[in-house]
Amino acid sequence: MGDEVEARAQCVCDHLHRPDHPDWKLTDAKVRSTENRTVPGGELRQREAEIDRKDLVENREKGACGDVHGGIDNPKSTAWDGIGAAYWNQGYDGGPSPEECDLYLRGVGAGDPVLLVGASTVRLALATVERGAVLTVADFSSVQLSQLGQLLHCRAEYVLADVTRSGALAAEAFRVVLADRLINRFTIPEMAAALGVLSGTLRAGGELRLSYRLGLYDRDHAVLAEARRRGDLAAVYDEQTSDIDYGGVRTWLGTVLPPHGAIPIEVLVQFYSSRGREHRLRQGELDVLVQQVAASRGLELSLVQHRLPNRERDYILRVTRLV
Ligand SMILES: C[S@@+](CC[C@H](N)C(=O)[O-])C[C@H]1O[C@@H](n2cnc3c(N)ncnc32)[C@H](O)[C@@H]1O
User: Using CA atoms, how far apart are residues 177 and 202, in angstroms rounded to an integer?
Assistant: First the structure.
């Protein structure tokens, strides 16, 4: 029986890995799920250890190919493809903590359909499946999806989607939608688009739970101080809009970036400088945006915000779709 399953898995694997398969990057995660169905659980540590520097180098090569994005036309995705699992398995300490996972998952139980946007938020993905919820993970990075798939196997569904593009996700499918500081990766127009797409995925009574940080990141302070010193501020920071784009200062970015685990500095520079333009949020901006999105889409949304415990400028935004 074991051999038969292995043979069938190999057959599916071969089929999906045909070079002309339209979605091979995405299905890689699903293939691995199939392949590993017969493997006993509990290999999380070992699997994490397997995704190491070797994968990082491979990821960089894949990121450079330019033709591996399977329908994603957002250049920001190349940054996340390039860094891959190194983002979360090389000394990342940005959370979510177990306490934050509990907050995200309050009231979520076995069988609840939950969407997580951001395959790099591995701790929250694990906490969600451990509750028995039915998890779908969406990401615009096929590498992030595939590498999460190596950990979770068939305990989740994986969807390659850019949530700033309308029609990216199934409508009214989820009771809870989670994203850990995804909002901070966006410009204001991208935030508005993503809020529309994500609230559209909620069933009536469902809730978006999205965390975000107010103001500048610590590393922004270091980069902006150096930019001022070099007379280069406008290349990285738009004071009018409060948008940051490290791409404008890639030539010296590596001199001031803080370390991220054992990730080589040139990989970090490539990652941050490819992430594109990101808005730094000011107090009250998101409330206004959510109201605008609700009005423009004819949705009835209610909104609550809490500060995350033990974090000064991180909040969780909870948006309920009333009808
Ligand atoms: C959730 S965000 C921010 C980092 C977060 N704090 C964490 O723990 O990973 C990073 C993830 O979101 C994904 N992502 C960023 N922009 C996206 C978009 N427009 N659509 C779908 N996924 C996106 C990235 O590929 C990455 O996996």
Answer: 7
